[in-house]
Amino acid sequence: MSHDGPIEVEDAIARMLETIAPDRPTTDMRITDEDLLGRVLAEPIRADRDHPPFDRATMDGYAVRTADLATGERLPVLGSIPAGGAMPKDVAAGGCVAIATGAAVPGTLDAVIEHESTDRGDPLEVTAKDVRAGRNIHRRGADAKAGDVLVPRGTRIDAVARAAAIAGGAAVGTGLVSIHRPPRVVVVTTGDELRPADDPLDRDGDAVLIRDSNRPLLVDLIADRWTFGGNVTGTRHVTDDPSATRDGLDAAAADADLVITVGGVSAGVLDLVPGHWARRGWKTLVRGVRMQPGKPFSAWLAPDGGTVAVGLPGNPVSAFACLHVLLRPWFDAFRGVEVAVASRSLPLHAATRANPRRPAFRPANLVVDGDGNVEVAIPGWQGSGDLPHLVGTTGFARLPVIDGEVPAGTPVEFLPHRDDHMRRRGGTGP
User: Fold this and answer.
1) Does the CA dihedral 327-330-336-339 come out positive or negative?
2) Cβ partners under 8 Å of residue 387, min gap 6
3) What is the pLDDT of residue 64?
4) Rounded to an integer, what distance in angstroms lies between the CA atom of residue 303 and that of residue 100?
5) Which domain holds residue 69?
6) Is residue 294 one of the residues assigned to a domain?
7) Cα–Cα distance measured from residue 350 to residue 363, given in angstroms and rounded to the nearest whole number
8) Contact between residue 384 and residue 338 where contact means Cβ atoms under 8 Å apart
9) H or E segment at 319?
10) Model pTM?
């Protein structure tokens, strides 16, 4: 297959996904480790015993034998059972016991009468009528039997899944669970013009300087366990010197699953990144994508197939769009997320100019009017360096390829890049 010239977005995603081996690497983590949240189970968590492990009272009250209620006799209270107490012994016929919510019900008793349906006396009078066996009792094994799957493989661990895992015995013995190892990522920014975020200078002699916003942007996004879930193992900056580029990229690739470079990936004299990977014998996967912004996006595969390198454009909105549109599926697949973020087709809120040559991805929000109609609203767009109009957006609108404006009401694809993507009409920008 040819890699000459820009390819379609879907083709670029497919080529990236082809680099992921079926036997994705796994690792073990403690069930109590805070870093576990957001990770994906590589193996299911099974119940170590029946759940609940005994017949359990679901109300405070009195455990009784329903056969004893048929005579209408008062029942002597022969003891009390607290939650967490010892497994109770059998109770003599004609008697009952006080019992707390969560306590084990003696095997000879078959119902729990709530306090409100008794006179709370001793002997006890049950005022409830037609009491049937099983009343207010959560039977042993009703939730799960020993060996049943409690948390399936491929589940992204949240607070509920972790609680279920602990209840299921994941912490018994080793206390470890198996997860898909997050990809090890090194972020490399390029260019003599970049300066640290806190650098007060905006010029060095005649040279115009740019504060490096891409590095924190990408590191923060990649490290977020609920979106990309990567493990950023390092960051580097290389100047526009060929030897610096060579040494920096080689070092970045030494122990990484993914190297992300920012800038230096187009066709200019100082765009040194593509040539470096070619000289190292890396296979070109993608060399340009039909999208705006993000056309220069490129990707390469190491000769041994163990590392992928991608080149993002230097403009921050371009880098952001490439990360979400082209790389999010790769991150999802690597870390075992089986259902990727789904797009929606929704009407465009207002007419918007498109790109006549390739699909345009515009930062956008969903807005909801008083009638509950959901539409895609696009803030002002000033180009791929326009970070201010990216602030507060929650997704991308994919516009069709037409020469001119896309009319209001036209169905367009909305690809969310965060969860809180619904707004009331009027919340369309910063």
Assistant:
1) positive
2) 213, 316, 317
3) 97
4) 66
5) 52-142
6) yes
7) 14
8) no
9) helix 316-322
10) 0.82
